[in-house]
């Protein structure tokens, strides 16, 4: 996609750009040009996202007669074989965090045993609520609850719920703070202050729940700027946010300083440990430099930690934790006037898959402390070797000082072209912007023999190729470049919406 020189627009206030964009998009010639350019990009995406067209049956209507189960199973097995190679070989960033065949088989067996259970009907399946309560308790105690609870009455102990993933955990926390602030402080126009590196799930929560998201810049080390956070506080601020670690750069924000600022102001503080919750406690025990980030800090009032990431459970579970029952109660929903009877649910979902809750419980109790400690040891050792190997490539540099999520960029090369060349060699990496970079989230898949060495070998070759072919545009690199440079947010938003439309095309 050919783009004009937009450098002069980088310092124009965003509200002016939004007005200008609105009028530009209303001009037929501009609209036609945008449609043509985005159409070309989407056409490329469609080929990648819909590889089974014309090779497998497609269904826009229910078949008149149901297909034989054996036939359907054969088709599903074929799809699994086709799609599992790259993640099994460790050629993806994150995505699959354990992946060993015996572990997958065990988790699948547990899910099958409890596939019909649903904690909405606690009397029918009390096992589901047992599992959920114990997963929450185990996660809380791993994240400092034992120390935080000492000497306090039970109603002030760390508590929580299971959600469907990190995004729901974060959204539950923000909804909870909104309602808490409205009831206890009379705040009707709530704001939260968070670093620019915090996960977009916070903005999603702000969008849904009417909370203003105030983003502040990170420092030269890519960690949240405490002074900038302090300056951003207003009478409507209800909480502050920090990441442990942040998704883009893999560094841990200054949680101690941020949470203490929140505590002194009577605000909530959320530690987003979706990525690090099941790694950092063990990294600290192994002697790695892990600053305080959990409930041992008195200012931390909520946390999120994903059991389906480095907790190694099946996809679809995360834990959101609260300092005390009174705060968690604002998460709950109750309906007392419905003709269908009394209704209540702790999270956004009504019915929830008890099989996933059972799988999370079974994973935690079979891994145990020793299992998580050993898994973290392998991941951190592999990440150290990768970080050193990347830093040794003269054209590249590592951003910040990460532990296991390693972001790297370049001052001399188009890093997105390097990422694209890595894609041609079978690697699926995450593109970042502001600044342009690429990252690899190291998992147990990367600790397999030879994977780290293969990554560094391919990375050196990718860098050499981009150096030798400076005029090569590639196919995806311009899209990533556009995301980091185009000041008109609506253009990118429209493209992303069309991309999502594409996902739903048969």
From TrEMBL:
InterPro entries: GrpII_AminoAcid_Decarb, PyrdxlP-dep_de-COase, PyrdxlP-dep_Trfase, PyrdxlP-dep_Trfase_major, PyrdxlP-dep_Trfase_small. SUPFAM superfamilies: PLP-dependent transferases. GO terms for molecular function: pyridoxal phosphate binding; sphinganine-1-phosphate aldolase activity. Pathway: Lipid metabolism; sphingolipid metabolism; Sphingolipid metabolism. Gene3D superfamilies: 6.10.140.2150, Aspartate Aminotransferase, domain 1, Type I PLP-dependent aspartate aminotransferase-like (Major domain). Keywords: Endoplasmic reticulum, Lipid metabolism, Lyase, Membrane, Pyridoxal phosphate, Sphingolipid metabolism, Transmembrane, Transmembrane helix. It comes from Stigmatella aurantiaca (strain DW4/3-1). Belongs to the group II decarboxylase family. Sphingosine-1-phosphate lyase subfamily. GO terms for cellular component: membrane. The modification N6-(pyridoxal phosphate)lysine is found at residue 309. It is found in: Endoplasmic reticulum membrane. It comes from the Bacteria. It is an enzyme of class 4 (lyase). Coiled coil: none annotated. One of its GO terms (biological process) is carboxylic acid metabolic process. It is a single-pass membrane protein. This is Sphingosine-1-phosphate lyase 1. Its EC number is 4.1.2.27. Its cofactor is pyridoxal 5'-phosphate.
């Amino acid at each position: 996609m050919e783009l004009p020189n937009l450098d002069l627009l980088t310092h124009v206030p965003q509200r002016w750009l939004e007005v200008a964009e609105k009028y530009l998009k209303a001009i037929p010639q501009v609209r036609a040009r945008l449609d043509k350019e985005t159409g070309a990009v989407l056409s490329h995406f469609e080929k990648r996202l819909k590889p089974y067209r014309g090779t497998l049956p497609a269904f826009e209507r229910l078949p008149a007669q149901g297909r034989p189960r054996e036939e359907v199973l054969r088709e599903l097995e074929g799809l699994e074989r086709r799609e599992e190679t790259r993640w099994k070989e460790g050629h993806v960033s994150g995505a699959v965090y354990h992946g060993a065949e015996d572990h997958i088989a065990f988790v699948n067996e547990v899910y099958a045993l409890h596939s019909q259970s649903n904690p909405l009907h606690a009397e029918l399946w009390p096992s589901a609520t047992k599992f959920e309560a114990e997963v929450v308790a185990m996660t809380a105690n791993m994240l400092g609850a034992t120390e935080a609870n000492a000497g306090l009455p039970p109603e002030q102990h760390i508590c929580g719920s299971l959600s469907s993933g990190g995004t729901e955990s974060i959204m539950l926390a923000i909804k909870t703070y909104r309602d808490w602030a409205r009831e206890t402080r009379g705040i009707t126009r709530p704001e939260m202050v968070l670093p620019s590196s915090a996960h977009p799930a916070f903005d999603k929560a702000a969008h849904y729940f009417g909370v203003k998201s105030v983003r502040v810049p990170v420092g030269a080390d890519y960690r949240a700027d405490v002074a900038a956070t302090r300056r951003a506080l207003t009478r409507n601020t209800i909480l502050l946010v920090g990441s442990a670690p942040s998704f883009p750069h893999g560094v841990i924000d200054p949680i101690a300083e941020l949470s203490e600022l929140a505590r002194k102001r009577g605000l909530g503080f959320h530690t987003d440990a979706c990525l690090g919750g099941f790694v950092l406690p063990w990294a600290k025990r192994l002697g790695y430099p892990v600053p305080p980030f959990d409930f041992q800090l008195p200012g931390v009032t909520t946390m999120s930690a994903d059991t389906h990431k480095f907790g190694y459970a099946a996809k679809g579970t995360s834990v959101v934790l609260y300092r005390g029952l009174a705060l968690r109660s604002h998460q709950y929903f109750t309906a007392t006037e419905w003709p269908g009877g009394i209704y209540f649910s702790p999270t956004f979902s009504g019915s929830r898959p008890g099989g996933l809750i059972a799988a999370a419980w079974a994973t935690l109790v079979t891994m145990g402390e020793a299992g998580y400690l050993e898994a973290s040891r392998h991941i951190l050792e592999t990440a150290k070797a990768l970080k050193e190997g990347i830093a040794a490539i003269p054209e590249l540099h590592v951003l910040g000082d990460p532990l296991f999520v390693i972001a790297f960029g370049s001052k001399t090369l188009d890093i997105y072209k390097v990422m694209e060349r890595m894609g041609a060699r079978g690697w699926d990496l995450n593109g970042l912007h502001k600044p342009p970079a690429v990252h690899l989230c190291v998992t147990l898949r990367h600790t397999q023999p030879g994977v780290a060495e293969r990554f560094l070998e391919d990375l050196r070759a990718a860098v050499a190729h981009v150096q030798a072919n400076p005029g090569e545009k590639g196919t995806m690199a311009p899209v990533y470049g556009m995301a980091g440079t185009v000041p008109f947010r609506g253009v990118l938003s429209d493209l992303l919406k069309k991309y999502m439309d594409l996902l739903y095309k048969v």
